[in-house]
Amino acid sequence: ELMESFTRVFVDSVINSFYPVPEEAIGVGSAFEGWSPCEWDGVYRVLVPLSPPAGHTFHLELNSAGQMAARTFSVRVELECTCKRQQLGEKLLCFLHHSQEELQQKQKCSLLETLCTSSYLDVEKTCRWFCQLVRCSWLHVPQSYSWHLVFQPCSRSCRFQLSRGKKRLMVEMLLGVRQGDSDIFVVSQPAEAQEGGSSILVSSQPAEANFPASTAWPETYTVAEVKFLQHIARQVPCKNLHLKCLQVFTCILRGTGFSSSTWKTVVMHVLTIVPLSRWSRREFVVCLWDIMAYLHCCLQLNRLEHFVLGNERLPAEISLPPAMRRVEPLNLFEHLARDPAAHREAMQAF
């Protein structure tokens, strides 16, 4: 409800400007998927897609090939002709075909002059602008009458605490740009700085130390994963059973050597293999053994494939960029294949 209220105010605030247009927020991570690992940091994360303002377009450019699951993109901002829109009666000058003098007198600055660095959308500038937008919007949403909002310092997202009496709620709004019309986004914050991301190994370094350049937007698959788990919940006899299985492994077996993202990847793969009719209460223990058997097989083969990249079993309703369906699946257990000692340790943990 809070995000819906904010979205309405955002649209009214930016409608006559040349800042990005915030779209409806998407809940991401375990809190919105219906399960929470023991190490959950208590932060509710939402991804706010940004669309270009009038007279501008966004173009995603891959920064480096690298590992598919660790790719970053730059968001190149280009001006587009708006002469036809002016002819239709809109009070909008064209950044391409009107003089600088006329633009300066009658129109606000383009996005290139405010939130960009060398024609690329700057993550930190955009987040500072967005935090100010949230700050200015807060008194215009109904929740401001009953909740107290305090901002938390963060350079690549908008993070704040809501409090009402003894109740506390931490919220983090990540900014993203959609790849075409798919469910894959580039996002303001790297996966290792988020809970419930697709990374298998969690860095021991502080998240801030791993942040890429200010014009680099990491690729994220969290929206596709949320949609997949929602799709499964509509298909299985007991809609939360698969999430209970996931919680068993991430909480009861905490500290046994496997991260919550490993368990989540394994469970999602099993959901595409085991008939969905089997996911019922009376089969709960059998489902747990199915998950263990799949993990055992992955460990023996030193291979656990990324759930989104190159997965031919993804439901058709999850939209991917065409090239992403054709890629060779990424092996998340490649480090075990390279390091026999790590493999022995993983087998002992199993």
TrEMBL record:
This is IPIL1 protein. The gene is Itpripl1_0. PANTHER family: CELL FATE DETERMINING PROTEIN MAB21-RELATED (PTHR10656), INOSITOL 1,4,5-TRISPHOSPHATE RECEPTOR-INTERACTING PROTEIN-LIKE 1 (PTHR10656:SF40). Gene3D superfamilies: 1.10.1410.40. InterPro entries: ITPRIP-like, MAB21L/cGLR. GO terms for cellular component: membrane. SMART domains: Mab-21.
